[in-house]
Amino acid sequence: MVSAGVLGKAGKAAPRTIRLSPTPSQLIAMPIKVLPDHLINQIAAGEVVERPASVAKELIENSLDAQARTIQVDAQEGGIRLLRVRDDGVGIPRDELNLALSRHATSKIDRLEDLEQICSLGFRGEALPSIAAVAGLDIVSRTAADEYAWKVSSSPGQPVGELRPDPHPQGTSISVHELFRSVPARRRFLRAERTEFGHLETTVRRLALARPDVGFALTHNGREVWKVPPAAGRADQERRLATLCGDEFVENALFFCRDLEQVGLSGWLARPAFSRAQADLQYAFINGRFVRDRVVVSALKSAYSDVLHGSRQPAYLVNLRIDPAEVDVNVHPTKHEVRFRDGRRAFDFLRSTAREALGAERPHQGMHVPRPRAGGPAAHEFRPTAQLPLGEPRAPGYGGLLGKESAVAGVAEGQSMSGPAADAGGPPLGFAMGQIQGIFIIAQNAEGLVLVDMHAAHERVVLERMKLHLQGERPQSQPLLVPIDIEVSLTAADAAEAQSEALLRLGLELRRTSPERLQLRAAPALLQNWDLAALVRDLLDDLGASEEADAGRLEHALDSVLGNLACRAAVRAGRQLNLTEMNELLRQIEQTPRSGQCNHGRPTWVQLPLDAMDQLFLRGR
Ligand code: ADP
Ligand code: MG
Predict the structure, then answer these.
(1) Largest Cα span, the chain
(2) Residue 174 Cα to ligand 2 middle (Å)
């Protein structure tokens, strides 16, 4: 017999069953036998039930699978003493109540093929028996067909009690008491009440974010923590988002939606200026299931890569809709990880959609809006203005500003993502009036005053031009008169060899001449003024060290190298520009995608509207 009790009184039990540190020979001495159900469930509970938060996840997922419209979650003492989830779903029929507590009993799948098309959150039939193995459990449930509800209670290791009638309305309430009381070794692993409640709240929040159509309420020790009603439209959803993720996230996030036949992605992407030090505001849902998936995370990181400093984390909430047959959720018992049938395609779709959404920001939305300092007059607030009407893309002008590189780089007509035309109010960023301290350009537009960080804005302009040039149909690659020998590390040489075709598409022709030596034979015209050996080394270093998913790796590495080049090519602070040059820069910014931020994620310009200036001077009061 093996039970916690016997092991606990190790010294007094019969020698054959004491195995505090079993030796192989002692183990062999044990006869093979089928484990009792209760022990099987306790072992399974080890995988599914880690802490109150995991119990909440299983119970709420069951409520969602039962089509609940509202879900009430009540916790006492971090959910350790009591966790109750109450729903208004379809309920459990009386004669199935006992079955729900049996292992591998589920109403959600019945054929192997179902596993390939999972639309419910649960399907393993493990949660309730696992929870019942390590905590007290009451289930009260009533279906539409029942005259009243039925209640069943169980305690670990005890036979399930009798069914009793109960006045509960349609739906199900499941209460979990004294988690792990019968398993002291696991109970000891639980943290302080506050910590456990923190995990619990995070879990409930994720589920509420996954299902905006369902109302959720959460209480702790009798006090309401938050409550969100079911959302009908986007405005409702954003109110819920503000409750669950904070007002600031909503204020700084862009809604986007791309709906194709097979696949769709929608959600909110925070502007780069609202980046964070931690990855604590990143929510990804696949078909309504919260996931922490490497493909998804790296695709989004990559989408932000050239508007965000490497050490900063983007904030987002995205919903991926995909054919359930294209993802395997049965990878892990908690189902937080998934496996895409075609990870590369998923990566590319996620990355390009998110990137486009970030890049599609028009100048007047792209700017960062500094919050007023606490206590400062409201008039100091810079506010975004209404989006200006957009016309046809215009042919860009190139001037002397860019110097040599501009001769080959340029935004082709019609390729710019935002193409504001001069309308009655003049161009969106207006006309330059002068320079301040050699750092800022001031301009006047229809809205009021525009302040531009010259270097940051130009850096973005140069970067986008380089990218267009290199990622166009065929970059103008030119053979080098004298091939350049480059000494590199073994990893870098391997990377060059493995990616030689992709590098060639970028116009870089590299040949490996020895294990640690490469020869560069051709390079894009645009890059020929630069230290090509250093550029290739940087690129390969990034390629070799990158932990991103394979797809997009090269592009990611290239972005970072180009980012460095752009920074060096951009006009330096302190340089005096004449008005023509300033205006030219303004026009270039208007035509450049993602021009609201430099490639380190800092804002490039801000608008001070006239009414804000009026307020500054208390006019009209
Ligand atoms: P699974 O969710 O994997 O099917 P569970 O052990 O979580 O397994 O639940 C077992 C079964 O109990 C479910 O398949 C479902 O039929 C029923 N059930 C559990 N919770 C609820 C609920 N809140 N409302 C309706 N039915 C439920
Ligand atoms: Mg379940």
Answers:
(1) 95
(2) 12
Tell me the ligand closest to 139's alpha carbon. 1
DSSP string covering 361-375, please?
A: --HHHHS--PPPPTT
Ligand 2 centre distance from Cα of residue 294 (Å): 25
**127 CA distance to ligand 2 middle (Å):** 5
The tokens for 10 are: 């190790």
CB atoms within 10 A of CB 513: 13
Looking at the CA of residue 58, tell me the nearest atom of ligand 1: 7
CA angle 318, 289, 551 (to 5 degrees): 55
CA distance 465 to 298: 25
Structure tokens at 376: 């400062």
Q: Which residues contact 515 (CB under 8 A, 6 or more apart)?
A: 490, 493
- Predicted local confidence at residue 592, as pLDDT: 87
| CA distances to 195, 253, 284 from 326, in Å | 36, 29, 17
Ligand 1: residue whose CA is nearest its atom 23: 63
322-328 own/partner pairs: CB under 8 Å, 24+ apart: 322/262, 322/263, 322/264, 322/286, 322/287, 322/346, 323/262, 323/263, 324/116, 324/117, 324/118, 324/119, 324/287, 325/116, 325/117, 326/263, 327/286, 327/287
CA of residue 140 to ligand 1 center, whole Å: 13
Closest CA to 319 of 392, 388, 237, 378: 237
Distance from the alpha carbon of residue 97 to the mean position of ligand 1, in angstroms: 10
Paired with 450 in beta bridges are 443, 607
pLDDT, tens digit (0-9, with 9 covering 90-100), for 498-528: 888 878 877 889 999 998 899 999 988 777 7
70, 83, 106, 150, best to mutate for ligand 1 pocket (most atoms within 8 Å of CB): 106
How distant is the alpha carbon of residue 388 from its chain centre? 30
Which ligand sits nearest to residue 172's alpha carbon?
1
Q: Percent helix, strand, coil in the chain (nearest 5)?
A: 40, 20, 40
On whether the pTM is more than 0.70, the answer is no
pLDDT of residue 382: 29
CA distances from 572 to 261, 401, 459, 540, 568 (A): 47, 11, 10, 28, 8
Query: Which residues have C-beta atoms less than 6 Å from ligand 1?
Result: 58, 62-63, 66, 87, 89-92, 100, 105-108, 122-128, 172
Cα dihedral sign, 586-588-591-596: negative
Q: How far apart, in whole angstroms, are the C-alpha atoms of residue 6 and residue 411? A: 77
Sequence-separated (6 or more) residues with CB below 8 Å from residue 617: none
CA 122 / ligand 1 centre spacing (Å): 8
Tens of pLDDT along 213-264? 999 999 999 999 999 999 988 899 999 999 999 998 998 899 999 988 889 9
